[in-house]
Structures are given as C-alpha cells and as structure tokens.
Amino acid sequence: MHATHPTYIPEENSPLRGQKNVTWDQKVRIVMNTKPEISCSAIKPGDGRYMFWSHAGVVLSGGTIKYASVSDGGTQVNKEGKRTFNNNGDSLGQQVSQTFNSEYGHYNEFVVADPHVAGLFIVSSDPEDKTLHYDDIVSYDELIKMAEEFNLPAYVFYKGELYELKQEEIEVEVRRSYYYQDKEPEEGKYETYHKITSQQRKELYDQGYILNDKVVISDNASSGFENKKVRLKVFKMDKKADIYKEEDKDD
Q1: Is residue 32 domain-shared with residue 114, that is, in the same domain?
Q2: Structure confidence at residue 131 (pLDDT)
Q3: pLDDT tens-digit readout, 82-121
Q4: CA quadruple 95, 96, 101, 104: dihedral positive or negative?
C-alpha cells in the first residue's frame, strides 16, 4: 500500500516538494493518473498503526518492485521523478526476502514503479483507542466519496487485515444527543452528535462496525438525560478483501 498524508509533504522524499496546499484527493489523483515511482509498505496480519507511514492512501495489486528495505529506506526523488536509493550491495531478491521476513516493528519501504491501484484505504484505530481520527487520516466519508468517483472499492486495514468497507445504518442506544454548530456553518445548520460509552464502541467493533465523526466516546454519565435509541450511520468492515485477479495469483 502507498500512504498519502492529507497535509504533509516530506520535502526531498516527494516529487511534490516545495508545493503548498496539495490536498489528499489531489495526491491520490496523481498516483492514479501519472503512475509515478512511489514508496510503499507491505502489511501483514497483526500489524498495527505503527506499520503505516500515514493512515490513508491507495492499495496496490501490482507494479514493479525496484527496491526494498526493512525500515524507512530514506529514498528520495531526483529531477527525472525517479526514486533514488542505496541497496547496500544486496540483490533485489535478498532485499525483498529480508523485508518480508523482518520483525523490525516499524514500517518498511518498497519502491514500486508503474503502480496498479486496486482501491483506497483507511486504517482503523484500535477499539480501546478513544481517538476516532488522527491528523494524518481522512474521514471515512471522504474515502468512500473518492472511491466512488474512481469506481474503486474502499478498504479498511484492521490489525493488519484488509476488509471491504461498506456503509450501513444500525440502531444504537446512546447516552445523549446534542447539537453542535461548526465554526463556519451554513446558516441555520447544526450537526447532531451522539454520545456512547467506550464499552459500546468496543462491542460495535467486535461486530465489525466503525463509528463516524458524529459520535463522541465518553464514560461520564450525563445527568438529566435518559438513554434513547437512534439510527446511526456507521461503516462496516465487511468480508476480507481479495484484490488479486486469478491470473495474478500464480505470478
């Protein structure tokens, strides 16, 4: 997978160095339309958030591996748009084998040319983590919107496994609901937020449900409010993804 940060450009490591205000969707479009040499990471079952350079981007189903490193290889982009690296004298086969068999505990780096994009991904946080989103991640709504535009599937990585991501609506008992007005809302427009406990969130995760931005996790009782059932739009980790075509599986 190739991770794209929504706000940060890593200077010499990116062909976008020196540019400002390049959005996440623009970065995805560049990968989709120009197929540049890109830095990627390989993910295996059990891998956590620390194995991702950033927590949203594109999933690849093919391309040509040019280089592999068990950790951040520090590759950079030259004037021709090619990534430069130091292979330390190891053959490509040795690099790939060492990287796939490594237990380094941090993200690895592959350089891939002519990348074939199979879908867009987001990384789900652990159920015990009360933070729904981080500053290096896009919203589930934005991810699905982009996937629909490109006619690609939306995926979610959860504990190193890749799942298809679907939207559903379910009934949940919430501790309270309240209205919140954004800093610059449309006139008269308020957003409804719902409060649930961390235990409820864990139970929903165990069923494969991921909450969106309009849910607040709180274990503090809300005096004067009675629990009520509401219909919540959620995201469902559906079946495990199979991104490879039959003819690719023997390669």
Answers
A1: yes
A2: 43
A3: 888 887 778 999 999 888 887 777 889 999 999 999 999 9
A4: positive
Q: Is 100 a domain residue?
A: yes
Helices of type H across the chain:
24-34, 92-100, 140-149, 198-206
Domain that holds residue 231: 167-235
> Which of 95, 67, 69, 97 is closest to 83 using CA atoms?
67
Q: What is the pLDDT of residue 73?
A: 87
Rounded Cα distance, 127 and 205, in Å: 6
Answer yes or no: are the C-beta atoms of 146 and 28 closer than 8 Å: yes
Alpha-carbon distances of 98 from 51, 94, 110, 160, 251, rounded to whole Å = 16, 6, 12, 19, 20
- Of 147, 189, 178, nearest to 164 by C-alpha is 147
pLDDT tens for 192-249 read 677 778 788 888 888 888 876 567 677 766 555 567 788 878 888 877 877 654 444 4
What is 102-155 written as a DSSP string? ---SS--EEEEEEEEEEEEEEEPPPTT------TT---HHHHHHHHHHTT--EE
What contacts 202, CB < 8 A, 6 or more positions away? 127, 128
Residues 159 and 171 placed together within one structural domain of the fold: no
Q: What is the pLDDT of residue 111?
A: 93
Is 241 domain-assigned?
no
pLDDT at 133: 45
Maximum Cα interatomic distance, the chain, rounded to a whole number of Å: 69
